[in-house]
């Protein structure tokens, strides 16, 4: 009997399923009236809750009562910023000249001094070198905020000596001794300009003297210190005028083993001594000559970090040595390439040189040099030749040395790897000889943006180290979990985590910066002694040698002096509070590269990107066009030309831009104003959205004078629930040299100055003062007054909501008055309210204790950081920018958002924000004053969404079983204006892009112009190329076709059961209940999903398992990425008529006064269209024309640049008088023990 009931039940259910399938041909339409009712109810709840919690109307009224508007004039703004930066740079330049004068004076006075004895000690910056017999310990170091919170001593300097430089060598120790006298100039500069950053002198002997004294930072991974000032941008650019370099490397059969290794290090070191104003290529030759990077054929490429890296990879992949070298072909090709660049005014347009790396030459090639380099005589030769002889046992060196000496170059003999770095840099003083001989001309150079002490070559090494840590983690995880490691659920989570990590690394979402980005200015220092006596051997009458003393011309470069300008100082000089939200300024160099820009993303994770300091202006300012990648619109190219040529003017361009971790995008018309910073290669550009953000709030007159309110200033900041923008200058002491001038937080600093202002009756102090003293301080009067005004406006803004009688008219206020606080919190889930103002002030009020979960609780990992821990940047925060921007669409709208792809659903918070504008009564112009908002639990929104959409109203003609969102016939979603799911029936969809969940539906909405597609190119991307394309791991062995079939069958069975559980045939299921009586409750156990046979496939042991645990090794590379982002149209199109209901299987309604839509999808309509990869994840752009090489594409389609305005000094008539024996020598190297310890490390990273 029991089995008969079961059969009947299954038969009836089968009939039901057949009927359901047939109904797909004629599904019921979505009830638009019901949808409208749901949208209205959602609006009512959200709107009234927001209005009550934020007290927006009250704040709006306060601002409109007395605040005024002031127009932003782009021409005035850019002129002011340029003037401020010029004044800053002039001070740095004056300081630099004082150091330069001191260097040249003390060097002359020390010429006849004997080297100091063994008792001489130096203040060595390396802690591990602070040995009592040679070094003085650095004492009394105090943390100083002006120097990145580094402990320093501003009474003396310290020195850094490269690991491979012997610090007791006579020339080194003598220069160390006389350079101690520079401390007087260093201290004087710091007294005159307390905003001065690091001051330093880099000696040609290798050491760098730096002020103030500091201990060199330890390497966290115990790697050797590879810093050498002679290879830093400021030294390289100042030591010689820009240069074109062609490196010729011999690859004949004799260049095997150690010779090949040494040659590679020579080339890599030469490449490290180049800067962005230099041009270079590397040619490898034997019986034929080719470029090491094939796509760089017949080119000299700009020496950017990306191009240098590409050349190094090419050198790394040079084929095994073979054949006999044809030097004539290689040298001829080099000379012809350089001649072409001279005649066409391309490349560096100044110095030119050939670097020949070989283990020997068959002859001196006199005729070849005569025809190619001495056309105008040896006095006017255009190309210098530097020769590097490789190997211990080499043939006659005379020809190699003659080639260098006859062509104003330098000869070096290298027999070991450890001497390479020290000997290769000798070419720089030779290139500098014309500069030294001119004596009076000391060009000032400005570097592009770079990281202060970070070696860019470490990128690959640090990434390899990070992958090793990931490998270690996976291996340990496997050993702990065994078979479970290979479960699809666990593997999917690892893949998601790695994908998310890669995305975050590209976006640089962490504001905490590990690298100090700077630009530097530097000047070469010359030895004033132009002649010296030397003793040489001379052959007399072809019979015997005699020694004689002669006077000869010399031109010695002492080194380079320099100082830094932190990128943060440049951003501060741009007065971002005056520019306002969604407006900004940036700086561009003569090469078109960005120095500072809000969209500059120089790191991935904590590692510098391969091309971090050569981002072009066209790569951050994206024109709103349909062009493919790197086909730049004429409008931006024209603007770029004006900028790099340092003109003054303005242009309007419609652009598109991304924000919120490159998940959202929009378009806008921007007005660009540009102006030169005189005396520098920089141009300042101000970008304004004048149509919407052309006005700023001006405080009322009564706040312009604080005499009447000084006693109450601190009253505005009584509580602790407020923060100020940490990067803005409100008030600051000139010196940070004691407890009275150091503060733990910006808020402590502000309180200090508020007290100081309250105590004085005089006007604001003048800046800069006639003379600086320990308590000199600077205040931005405009910003301080705005902050105090905003503090007055926002004080008690949230507590007023409970006492404001006018708000009793608000339905939410009525509900609040009737419900206890705990019940109100439970209903709306409100956790926090906040307000942020245009002056950088952020206030908040908690609605619940924080954190409620103890730190040792199991749920601690699910706890999100407190709002204020990550939201102190006011106008720069995403919720602030979105609220102000969306005000242009609807000035009453709240903007809602949830975290993207948040796995901790239980703790997910919804953030809602709305802008407060001051509106002019005369012309209706508006200016953003503040943004108010609140956070509430997503679970409350989820419950509200489900409760409303399950309701059925008779007047709408709905049927609960078919028309509500509880029905299997309807799938309901709340989407934001960029297509991300705010709420759905499946809570796990929260934060996902709708296209990932219902691709065909999203595709249809884009097609019908409900959402607009905005294509964004990320020209700062980093992609990860697998080192071994044949590598494989666990991703491929688990899912054979049989496994896919098994999972498909399991899914179908589950779907049938799900349909049954949600159908109206409860009686039928009750009859079949016996079938399931012995089935236990479903548990989220991975093993329960798979059969025993499937689980057996996960049991992998031994070496085979470790093979699948092994990760794919990759190498980071610069790449372009493309992503399609979406934005809701301002006016949703009316319903489109279709032939059948399923031709448009959805309906939607805007939720009034929000950025949300309510979307209902007809579940009966099959999704017949495909929308593969319909997501918002960036994809790499392939450049098939150049074998998918971005650097090749950029080299072939290089953008124009302007040569630096510094004079090109490449020759001097007296240079031929310099004794030819000073053009090189065979090296006799004293190798320090510590040098030998880094040879293996150098082999790994170079």
UniProtKB/TrEMBL annotation:
Q: Where is the VWFA domain?
A: 244-428
Q: What is this protein called?
A: VWFA domain-containing protein
Q: Name one GO cellular component term.
A: voltage-gated calcium channel complex
Segment forming the signal sequence: 1-23
Tell me where it mainly resides. Answer: membrane
Q: How does it sit in the membrane?
A: Single-pass type I membrane protein
Q: Please give the SUPFAM superfamilies that the UniProt record associates with this protein.
A: vWA-like
Q: Name one GO molecular function term.
A: voltage-gated calcium channel activity
Q: Which organism is it from?
A: Acyrthosiphon pisum (Pea aphid)
Query: Which SMART domains does the record cross-reference, listed alphabetically?
Result: VWA
Q: Which UniProt keywords apply?
A: Calcium, Calcium channel, Calcium transport, Disulfide bond, Glycoprotein, Ion channel, Ion transport, Membrane, Metal-binding, Signal, Transmembrane, Transmembrane helix, Transport, Voltage-gated channel
Which InterPro entries does the entry link to? Ca_channel_alpha-2/delta (IPR051173), VDCC_a2/dsu (IPR013680), VWA_N (IPR013608), VWF_A (IPR002035), vWFA_dom_sf (IPR036465)
Task: Give its localization.
Answer: Membrane
Asked whether the UniProt record includes Calcium among its keywords, one would answer yes
Q: What Pfam families has UniProt attached to this entry? A: VGCC_alpha2, VWA_2, VWA_N
- Keyword Oxidoreductase tagged: no
